[in-house]
Amino acid sequence: MSTPSKRRLVRDFRRLETDPPHGITAAPLQDDIMQWEAIIFGPDDSAWEGGTFKLTLSFTQDYPNKAPTVKFVTKMFHPNIYADGSICLDILQHNWSPIYDIAAILTSIQSLLTDPNPNSPANVEAAKLYQENRREYERRVQQVVEESWDHDNDSDKETDDDASDSGENESKTSEKKDKTKEQEKDKDKEKEKEKEEKEKEKAKEDQNQQSETMQSSVSKD
Amino acid sequence: MSQNDEEKKEEVKEEKKEEIEEKKFDLTDENDFLMSSSINEMEMIREEIGKSQPLVSDPKPLEHLLKEFNDHSNYRRQIETLITNKQHSAYRQLRADGNCFYRAFLLGLFETVEATKNEQILETVTKNVVTSNDRLVKFGYEQFALSEFYESFMDELALYQSILSSDDSSGVNIAESTAVQKLSDESHVELFVLCRSLNEAKVFFNLKKQSNYLIFWARMLTSLQMQENEKHFSQFVQGKTFREFLQTDVEAVHAEADHPQFCALSMAIEVPVRVFCLENVETGGPQVVTIPENGQPLFDLLYRPGHYDILYRKS
C-alpha cells in the first residue's frame, strides 16, 4: 500500500538523485524506505575538511508532517551533537516544516558543522573549547575527521583499538579515502558543469524568471 | 508544445518508476508503527495534551468557559458579558497544540459553507487557492514538497463544491460530519458510525493526517500572502529576518499564529472573520475585532492570549 509518507520519500530520493547537494549522499536501506543512511563530507576549508560522517535518518508515517530522527553514526566532536549522535538543530525540532526535504535537512546539518551554535550546547566540552580555545577545538575536530576514515572503512563494527593498532592500515585507508574523495570531487565538478549548462539554457529561455531556490535560502540561514 | 510532450513522457516514466519503487518497499508496513526512539520533549508534552484533550471538542454552552477561568475575575467578567449579550449559543474548544488558529479558521470556514450553502464563499476561496501552488513555486519552493498538501486542500474544496451543487440534503449532512471529523480527533467508534460509504471510510482512516495536510496548506497560504506583501508584513517582524520569521513563525508545523498571520490568511482567501478577544484588563471587553477591518465577517472566533476557539452565533 502506498502511503503519503512513502510517496514523499520516493520524491525526496528522486530529487537527491537528480540534483544532489554538494558533499552529501543519501539513500534508503534496500528493504525499507523509512530508514535511510547518509554521508556528509566535511566542508572544504574548515577543520572538518576530509571527514566522511555517516548518519541515519529514521522516518515515521507522519513524515513530512513530522521530522525524521536524525543521528550521526560516526563519532563526532561538535557543540550541538550529543554523545549518542543526536543533533540539536531547530529545524529537526521545534522549527520543523514539511517543506524541508532530505536534501535540505542534510544541507542544514552540513552547515551546522562549520557554524555551530554554542549557546545551546549538546556537548559542553566542545562548546567550551569552541568559544575559549579554538585551536584545541580544531585539533579535536581533526581527530574526529581522521577517525571517520577508519570507521568508514570498517565493514561494520570493529573496535577502535583494532583500527589504531594497525598503523600501516591507517595510512592505506587514508590513501584510499583520498582517492574516493577525489573521485567524489570529480563527480561533483561534472555535476556542477552540467548544472551550469542547464542553467544557461534556462536563462536563455526566460531571462526574467529567476528566483532564489528554497534550498539556497535554507543553507544561507 | 514539444516541451509539454516531454513533460508528459517524463510524468509517465516517473509514475512507473514510483510504482516499482513503492512495490519494492511494500514489506515495511509493520515497521511504520514503531515510534522513533528519541522523541524530543516538546513532542512528549504535545502527546500528553493529546491524551487529555481532543483536537476539537463538541460544542459547549458558554457557561463552561467560566469554569476555565475560575480564578480570573477579569476574564470571567468578559465571558459574562458574552453570555448576557446573547449573540452566541456555544463555543467549540480546540486543542492547544500550536495549530489552534489554523484549525479554528478552517473548521469555522467549512462549517459556514455547510450551514449557509453559500457557493459564493466557496468560489472565492477556491479562486484564491487554485493558483497558490504555482505562486509558491515562483518564490522558490520545491514543487514536490508542496503538491501533496495543495492537492489535499483542493480536494477538500472540490468535495464541498460537489456537495453544494447537488440538491441532496443528505449530502450536506455528510459534509457536516466530514468537516468536524477531518479537523477533529480520531475517536474511532463514533466516526465509524458516521462513515457511510467506502469513500468515507478512507477519509476516516486518514483523519489526523488529513487535518494536518489542510492545516499546513493554510500555513503556506499565510506565508505566501506575507511574501507577496512583504513590505506590509515585514513591519511586524522583530529580531529576525523576514525569511526567518516565515520559517519559524508561519511554516513550522507547531508555530502559533498571531495577529499578522490571522490578517494574512484572512486576506489570502478573502474570508473576513470576527474575533472576540478575552484579555486580562480591569474594565470593558471583550474587544471585538473584524479582520480585515471593513469585511463582512463570515464566522466568529474566540481569542484568549495564546489560544483560539470557535464561537457559534445564535441562529
From TrEMBL, chain A:
Chain segments carrying region Disordered: 146-221
Biased composition (Polar residues): 211-221
Residues in UBC core domain copies: 4-150
Active site (record annotation): C88
Biased composition (Basic and acidic residues): 169-207
Biased composition (Acidic residues): 157-168
Keywords: ATP-binding, Nucleotide-binding, Transferase, Ubl conjugation pathway
An annotated Gene Ontology molecular function: ATP binding
Highest taxon of source: Eukaryota
Family indicated by similarity: Belongs to the ubiquitin-conjugating enzyme family.
Protein name (record): UBC core domain-containing protein
Organism field: Reticulomyxa filosa
Automatic annotation (TrEMBL), chain B:
Entry's EC annotation: 3.4.19.12
Single GO MF descriptor: ubiquitin binding
Region of interest (Disordered), residue spans: 1-24
Keywords: Hydrolase, Protease, Thiol protease, Ubl conjugation pathway
Catalytic activity reported: Thiol-dependent hydrolysis of ester, thioester, amide, peptide and isopeptide bonds formed by the C-terminal Gly of ubiquitin (a 76-residue protein attached to proteins as an intracellular targeting signal)
GO-annotated biological processes: protein K48-linked deubiquitination; proteolysis
Domain of life: Eukaryota
Broadest EC class assigned to this enzyme: hydrolase
UniProt xrefs under Gene3D superfamilies: Peptidase C65 Otubain, subdomain 1, Peptidase C65 Otubain, subdomain 2
Sequence ranges assigned to domain OTU in this UniProt record: 89-314
Example of a GO cellular component annotation carried by this entry: nucleus
PANTHER family the record matches: UBIQUITIN THIOESTERASE OTUBAIN-LIKE (PTHR12931:SF15), UBIQUITIN THIOLESTERASE PROTEIN OTUB (PTHR12931)
Entry protein name: ubiquitinyl hydrolase 1
Species for this entry: Reticulomyxa filosa
